[in-house]
Amino acid sequence: MTTRIDRRFAACKAENRPALVTYVMGGDPDLATGQAILNALPQAGADIVELGMPFSDPMADGVAIQLAGQRALAGGQTVLGVLGMVEEFRRKDDDTPIVLMGYYNPIYNFGVDRFLAAAKQAGVDGLIVVDLPAEEDGELCIPTLTAGLNFIRLTTPTTDDKRLPVVLENTSGFVYHVSMNGVTGSQIKSRGAVGDAVDRIKAHTDLPVAVGFGIKTADDAAEIGRHADGIVVGTVLVDAVGKSLVEGKASDKTVTVVRDIVADLAAGVRRARA
Amino acid sequence: MTSQNTNSLRNGPDEHGRFGIYGGRFVAETLMPLILDLEQQYRAAKTDPAYQAELKHLATHYTGRPSPLYFAERLTEHLGGAKVWLKREELNHTGSHKINNCLGQILLAKRMGKSRVIAETGAGQHGVATATVCAKFDLPCTIFMGATDVERQMPNVLRMKMLGAEVRPVTAGAGTLKDAMNEALRDWVTNVESTYYLIGTAAGPHPYPEMVRDFQSVIGTELKEQFREAEGRLPDAVVACVGGGSNAIGTFHAFLDDPEVAIYGAEAGGHGIDVENGHAASMTGGRPGVLHGNRTYLLQDDDGQILEGHSISAGLDYPGVGPEHSYLHDTKRVTYAPITDNEALEAFQLCTRLEGIIPALESAHGLAQVMKLAPRMGKDQSIVLCLSGRGDKDVESVGKYLGLLK
Known about the structure:
The complex is a heterodimer.
Chain A: H1 4-14, E1 19-25, H2 31-44, E2 48-52, H3 63-74, H4 79-90, E3 98-102, H5 104-110, H6 112-122, E4 126-129, H7 141-146, E5 150-151, E6 154-155, H8 164-168, E7 175-178, H9 191-202, E8 209-212, H10 218-224, E9 230-233, H11 235-244, H12 254-270
Parallel strand pairs in A: 1-2, 1-9, 2-3, 3-4, 4-5, 6-7, 7-8, 8-9
Helix pairs in contact in A: 2-4, 2-12, 3-11, 4-6, 10-12, 11-12
Chain B: E1 18-19, E2 22-26, H1 32-46, H2 49-63, E3 69-71, H3 73-79, E4 83-88, H4 98-111, E5 116-121, H5 125-136, E6 141-146, H6 147-152, H7 154-162, E7 166-170, H8 177-190, E8 195-197, H9 208-216, H10 218-231, E9 237-241, H11 246-252, E10 262-270, H12 282-285, E11 287-291, E12 293-298, H13 323-330, E13 334-340, H14 341-355, H15 361-373, E14 382-387, H16 395-401
Parallel strand pairs in B: 4-14, 5-6, 5-8, 6-7, 9-10, 9-14, 10-13
Antiparallel strand pairs in B: 1-2, 2-12, 3-4, 11-12
């Protein structure tokens, strides 16, 4: 059974380029504008969408994504609201994979089984949950796989060769390699090290490897994308949303500014191996 | 620390770091290898006679252990029931129980070859204790403290700075302990290779709840021995305040398998349990969730977003609690009850006037619980409070509440 994620990575591979994975916070800066941003992503050039589920205490995120989450929560976003966004998106797009990204407590509070059923129904393809390492696979990872969704795990520079098999064991869809020890939005210290890390992970798995954290420009996308099967961009987009606001509210630039950056990054991934 | 008795309540956590369903290791992958390493190093240290001897030596000559068990005669008379005893942790070096844990962990940080220490603090007691051991062991340290707490606990901020620590005020959220912990975790993820995170309470990812409990268990172990010497038996009740719950678990642990000893934890009831987001009583007013590396009782809204909570006491102003307390709450071995800001203020004044001991506002919550229990107990019975910290840091904020300052 092929999934949307499998098909999309295969299609990008056929074009000899990495996939562009874009992260936006679900419901930022408000529910309607958040939906408009999500809907605009595929046409702007996003291959895969990561949709952030806001959490009050995003321990692994830098300031930009913290603020985006606060805006979404202030705008009334909920777990059901994020799932509703996916449902709405699926009315017009049945091909672009959507991966929900967030923290465990809102899902745990919602109820794991209830959440998985609703996510599948809405058209979600996979989950990335930052605070669930392999040691806690029984909580959500295994139930997610059983429900027929992908559970995408993060690898980091501290995940050494001894640990990689543990981390990769129940990973599916793709591997999300975090380029640095740090929170989202930090600077990459060594681009060479990222390439080596991707090679190291690929020696352990046949899954596509996407790289995220610290990728900000089309040039970054082109350079990192030489080695990786996908590049993930998030902070730049949510930061642009934040900067487009006028007196805290969405402006006529909010959607277009995200679209423009995604289009630029899409050009970047297309010249990665050209 | 563990008991051979399979029905013992003292055997936790299991190999997954769980106390029943609570605890665990809910952290980002970046931190996971380090946490596994920390657990190994802690296991090795625990059975290393040299490590234990150094810790014992420091406890005696640096902290000033054992702390006295003091019979509070006038409080006893005033309350008119059970004999009231105070386990004087406020007499420790740095003025609270926090030093017990900091010494244990700083020796571990040294063993692990870490070159920098970070910590979170609420009231500043843990920050001061951390800054103290970092001065003594010559390690640079950064303390994360909510901006609101920086304001209300200024004396401790000054102490930390004088001890050479960098104090980073955290403005996110309500600027209290939860936000400080988020920021400390962000720093740790970024500097994981060099940095030791010295968690101050019996919470966070495994092995921290176990480790902090072990370092604090000296409180209850000493108390049990001292009380036996004084009265020839076990106390009828022990009481401690519970924020994250490190002084409480340290006090309770030695008594968990003694059913004749009633155990009470005083949570921060703030403006009252019925006031939404107006208290920090996570067990009385919350439900299980996952935050800061562990599953435990949390104050949260319907959608699983964590609430800020409120307490007059910066040290109790946290929407969660250590996972072992959640387990002891569910098993009903310990009775957790909320104490309001006003009840704590009243206890603060009573202790000060009757015993000449200014308690920390945190500990005053425990005393308020004693004030409810002692009058209902017989004169031949005894109740012991862990007086976890001294109240010098609170005189300014209490003075404001009482209208003593303009």
